[in-house]
Amino acid sequence: PFSKFKHELISLLVKEGYLNSCEKISVDGKDVISISLKYVDEAPAIRELKRVSKPSLRKFSSASDLEQVKSGLGLYVLSTSKGLMSDKEAKSKNIGGEIICEVF
């Protein structure tokens, strides 16, 4: 099912180059998100997607405390006061937030 949060998260992954595209479509009168996966040399661009912050245990980080994911090859997705953004964007804007997931 479609939600603003899911659409924003997937749009960020498209912007960061992990997915080809996404669009909102209607199936049987319900809105859903259609995703086009990205492959590099026949291997998926996303090798690992791990949820970090959970409802039972939320993880927060300031911009200065954010560490690199997989030696800089991956990224964290953060929920900030300015919306969802990658760890690199959050560091450049000096904004911390809740770490939603890790993408590699």
Secondary structure: helix percent:
10-25%
How do the helices and strands follow one another from N- to C-terminus?
Answer: HEEEEEEEEHE
Dominant shape: globular
| Cα separation of the termini | 25 Å
Work out the helix count: 2
Give me the secondary-structure category.
alpha+beta
Poorly predicted parts: none
Number of strands: 9
Q: What is the CATH architecture assignment of the largest domain?
A: 2-Layer Sandwich
How much of the polypeptide forms β-strand, as a percent range?
Answer: 35-45%
Most strands sheet: 5 strands, antiparallel
InterPro entries: Ribosomal_uS8, Ribosomal_uS8_CS, Ribosomal_uS8_sf
GO molecular function, one term: structural constituent of ribosome
Keywords: Ribonucleoprotein, Ribosomal protein
Family: Belongs to the universal ribosomal protein uS8 family.
